[in-house]
Amino acid sequence: MNAIETQGGREYLTRSEVAELFGVNVRTIIRSDMPFVRFGRAVRYSRAAVKAWAEGGGMKTKENAR
Fold first, then answer.
1. Which residues pair with 33 in a beta bridge?
2. Number of domains composing the chain
3. Which helix (H) or strand (E) holds 54?
4. What is the CA radius of gyration of the chain?
5. How far is 42 from 2, CA to CA, in rounded Å?
6. Chain segment 6-65, per-residue pLDDT in tens
7. What is the DSSP string of 4-48?
8. pLDDT at residue number 66
9. Residue 63 within a domain
10. Which residue range is the domain that position 49 belongs to?
């Protein structure tokens, strides 16, 4: 099991938790194209979606979007 599958055992992660998993600043997560859901004002990231996003190559930039 990797960190995405084991952190806290919850289905949804906060921005801070996702940033910690990837070792980046929270702003990087906010600017990413990672899918998220809103629960009222709270933004959460599905553990399964984060895993799929990372396995699919992660953040799209001008260079790797081609």
1. none
2. 1
3. helix 47-55
4. 12
5. 25
6. 555 678 999 999 999 999 999 999 999 999 999 899 999 999 999 999 998 887 654 555
7. HHHSTT-SEE-HHHHHHHHT--HHHHHHS----EEETTEEEEEHH
8. 47
9. no
10. 3-55
